[in-house]
Amino acid sequence: TALKAEHVDKEDTQAVANSVVRHVTTTLARQAANLDDIAAYQATALSVKDQLLKRWNETTTYHTKHAPKRVYYFSIEWLMGRSLDNAVLNLDMRNTYETATQKLGFNFEDLLNEERDAALGNGGLGRLAACYIDSMATLNLPGWGYGLRYSYGIFKQLISNTGEQLEAPDPWLDRENPWEIARIDVSYPIRFYGRVESIPNTSRAIWSGGTECLAVAYDVPVPGFATKNTANLRLWASRPIQGFDLNSFNAGNYEASVQSSSDAENITRVLYPNDNMYAGKELRLKQQYLWCSASLQDILRRYQKLDLSWEQLPDYVVIQMNDTHPTISIVELMRILIDEEEVPYDVAWKITTKVFAYTNHTVLPEALEKWPLPLFENLLPRHLQLIYQINLNFLNDVAKRFPGDMDRIRRMSIIEEGTPKFVRMAHLAIVGSFKVNGVAELHSQLLQSTIFRDFVEFKGRDSFTNVTNGITPRRWLLQCNPRLAQLITDTLGSEHWLVHLKQIAQLLPMADNAQFRAAFREIKNENKTRLAEVLASELNIQVDIDSVFTCQIKRLHEYKRQTLNIFGVILRYLQIKKATPEERKKFVKHTAIFAGKAAPGYYIAKLVIRLIVNVSKIVNNDPDVGHLLRVVFIPDYSVSVAEVLVPAADVSVQISTAGTEASGTSNMKLGLNGALLLGTVDGANIEIAEDVGEENAFLFGHLAADVDAVRYANSYNPTPLAERSPELAEVFKAIEANTFGDGHIYEPLLKPIYDNDYYLVSNDFGSYLAAERLVDELWRDQEEWTKKSIRTAFSMGDFTSDRSIQDYADSIWSIEPDPVPEN
Ligand code: 26Y
């Protein structure tokens, strides 16, 4: 479809205003006069939803008739953020809605800010799913997302007076969710526990007893940009099965029956707040099974309407597993085919292994899911039987290929021996999938050479590939940085870059155009001013927009090394304190911005937050510092907070220990908005630096290939901290001397760095400081800085999720665009 700039028509505006008013008086049953912003937002959202549903219906009707092969993206997290602004932009109706709501007496920006984020995710993995479904719709690919409708999303982060993170619930559905449609008629029974009876002389079994509940569908329409195609995100909520089982109501069992119904509702009550840290809780496995079983029942019901044989399923259905969280769906498909559809075991396995593909997001051992076998067997007894059968066949094949290699069989087994035994979900995911991919070049290489090496040797290189992550330029440029988007559109003379992001490379020569640089810098400064206003009004912190804004915005985790950043800030502070007034004039002004949540049980991560907050209190109020340094920890990081931070950043801080960050995606968002990369040679940083040119980025630190040797030396042959890094020793001394409150508090954070420094903080600190000095030097030359900023932004064309999704479609899914025909 041709893109054209939105034409705001008087009649359209009136029609939109009428539809908003109609929702006010009918759906909301309120008076159009005396309306508050909340109700005006809701009515506006409902009006937009009407538009979405029209397109959603057309898409669904067309695809039902046309029956293309479809991709189903299974993700236990969907970090969608807000929908209103995104929807009106994708529908090319933003100005119309802005004008219409203005006519009704409202400021559109204020209405946008009434919306609560849909925060059904922790971090990168959940936001990736959100970007991917946006691209699937935009590329007209027939695809649906499947996930869980948690009553409570990621917790709200509060910061106490002492700098500690407190967690409050996020009851995001309390005000009703105008973006979903409850499909009470689309529901499936889900069984837990119970017993299994084998049917003699078959592979079949009957699984019965235990408890049952229902999974009920809620649909969220996801509009593509500049296309009619609208994808569907189907989220499941658990409900009790009630009213038909008379047995549970006799013999005075009333209270017990009500109790079990609240158990059912508990399953999808809350998102687990762990990111890259496995916990092994039964309720989490219940969530996974409910989600996977309901999604598969739904997909198979749709497939059965086509009246084809089961063998043809892989020609119509491909399921992409976002990490191992949905791995149980491999076994569930086997169970349904074998036990319910009476498909022979070998046929079922052949079908199943053509349907699933698996994306890995981490090599960190603590993030790999492995379920204690007794827990698994109790909850899903039939699935464990099938896993034993899958494992037996698999290990037989391994033994044939590698006779006598018992160690290899032990390493590769889906079952980990020990007391207790464990079910290794990554092994099951690989064995049951036709393709496994990592999320950036280095990460995919590391997967193949380390944790999945045996599987590469067994299945062959072709079963493993890379698809580098991407982000949607609609939300992460058009929506969050409208002025930069306009500058790009004006200079290129069209909006096509929004769906062909590579085209922004045509603007690279503008780096040498002084007038363009001035315009580009002016936009950055306006975005910084907007952020500064928020910081002043919300946090009472005054920042200087002429300072360099460094941004590290991501989950708190030791491997991400917010420590390096805050220790660098402390050193800068000590240096300012030591300097004479004359010397102080030579400092480059810095504003160090942090945001991110820590898992509630992750003690060290929470301690890092505490240190950042307490450093900020001292630094920001020290008259010696003046404007030279500000430290800001922004509480309750979210997608909508990111939309304010990302366009205002000068430096993108991406400083994970090499080999630990699978990809990173905030590096892409920040780069696309012109922030220079200050990063380690890790994840997608490597590909970003390659594309923007290493001369335009600040890379530092040990390389992935050297990390093991340094780690080994740190723990077996430790040298004193002062030898590894005198600067870091000075920083630790200052902390221990109570410069930022009681230094003892931070001992659990500092001690591991003294002792064995697993994440190489001390080993990388020196080169980190050297990189910072280069940042400072460049900042003094604003014209040069702006050149590099422009080059960075316009070299990011490969990091659009459209390119990622096209890669998946071509090299894994084998699916084609199927646009809804015009009228
Ligand atoms: C099993 C459970 C504890 C678990 C829950 C959440 C395990 C992992 C996660 C989330 C992982 C995650 O967000 N990983 C990130 O995925 C991004 C998208 O691919 C990457 O950019 C990022 O490097 C990676 O850490």
UniProtKB/TrEMBL annotation:
The prosthetic group or cofactor this protein requires is: pyridoxal 5'-phosphate
Q: Name one GO cellular component term.
A: cytoplasm
> Which transformation does this protein catalyse, written as a reaction?
[(1->4)-alpha-D-glucosyl](n) + phosphate = [(1->4)-alpha-D-glucosyl](n-1) + alpha-D-glucose 1-phosphate
- Keyword vocabulary terms for this entry: Allosteric enzyme, Carbohydrate metabolism, Glycosyltransferase, Pyridoxal phosphate, Transferase
Q: Which GO terms describe its biological process?
A: glycogen catabolic process
Q: InterPro entries, alphabetically? A: Glycg_phsphrylas, Glyco_trans_35, Pyridoxal_P_attach_site
N6-(pyridoxal phosphate)lysine: modified positions: K669
Q: Which family does it belong to?
A: Belongs to the glycogen phosphorylase family.
Protein task? Allosteric enzyme that catalyzes the rate-limiting step in glycogen catabolism, the phosphorolytic cleavage of glycogen to produce glucose-1-phosphate, and plays a central role in maintaining cellular and organismal glucose homeostasis.
Put simply, this protein is called Alpha-1,4 glucan phosphorylase
Naturally occurring in which organism (per UniProt): Apiotrichum porosum
Lineage runs: Eukaryota, Fungi, Dikarya, Basidiomycota, Agaricomycotina
